[in-house]
Design a protein that fits this description.
- Strand 8 and strand 9 form a beta hairpin.
- Helix content is about 40%, strand content about 30%.
- The protein has about 230 residues and is an alpha+beta fold.
- The strands form two sheets. Strands 2, 3, 4, 5, 6, 7, 8, 9 and 11 form a nine-stranded antiparallel beta sheet that branches. It has a two-stranded parallel ribbon with strand order 1-10.
- The longest helix is centred in the N-terminal third of the chain and has 23 residues.
- It has one domain.
- The N and C termini lie far apart (about 60 Å).
Length: about 230
């Protein structure tokens, strides 16, 4: 056997071993299969505090091709518009995915809005001090023509609320090392308002009342361990 052939065979064997190891170490235990089933329609109250569903607003459904892509990532989605006694409106969107591995992770709102022709600006990450503990969120403004839409969002990996892609990867790695595939939730609220700060203040009020209206178990599902 020539040295070149011997080297090639050793390299091939090492590549095969690495591939087999990666497959063996790939997480297979889905946490979504072990816990109680998620039902967003039942979890999220239709009325709370000064907020109720605005029945005059008909939700715009995604196109069939977009819906097909969403169905591959998310097990459930919920989209509602709420209105208060002052006529102020908040749009709420929640998506739940039972598989938050690299291949099936949530899509960030800035990508979705940019794909629809919106300009994305003023992105920041902050921590909201809720009545139940700190909640890390991202904020950004989606702008198109006369429409100015300030947005607040966060997502969870397992039971941890996060607001950055780096932290998302870190949490996925932690679960993966334990052989588990976490589930996750993406929560987004937005409103049409030219005054960004007024919009964010209204959204924070909305979120405080929403979280306060939920059971502890359901609140942990969509906001993670906010008591940490």
């Amino acid at each position: 056997m020539t040295p070149i052939l011997r080297t090639a065979l050793i390299t091939a064997a090492l590549m095969f071993a690495a591939s087999a190891t990666a497959v063996a170490l790939r997480p297979t235990h889905k946490l979504a299969d072990a816990g109680p089933k998620v039902d967003l329609e039942a979890m999220i109250p239709k009325q709370f505090g000064d907020w109720r569903i605005d029945t005059s607003i008909v939700p715009v459904l995604p196109s069939p091709d977009v819906q097909a892509k969403l169905d591959k990532i998310y097990n459930q989605t919920l989209a509602r518009t709420y209105v208060n006694s002052h006529g102020q409106r908040i749009m709420l969107s929640i998506a739940y995915g039972g598989d938050q591995s690299d291949a099936m992770q949530v899509h960030m709102p800035e990508g979705c809005y940019a794909g629809q022709g919106f300009a994305i600006k003023d992105k920041s990450r902050i921590v909201l001090e809720t009545f139940f503990g700190p909640l890390p969120v991202s904020r950004l403004v989606a702008h198109q023509g006369q429409r100015n839409e300030p947005i607040t969002y966060w997502f969870t990996v397992g039971d941890v609320a996060i607001n950055s892609g780096f932290r998302q990867k870190l949490e996925q790695l932690k679960f993966g090392l334990n052989g588990s595939v976490p589930d996750g939730v993406l929560v987004r609220v937005s409103s049409i308002d030219r005054n960004n700060q007024n919009a964010y203040a209204l959204q924070e009020n909305f979120l405080q009342e929403l979280l306060g209206s939920m059971t502890e178990k359901d609140r942990a599902r969509i906001a993670g361990r906010t008591n940490e």
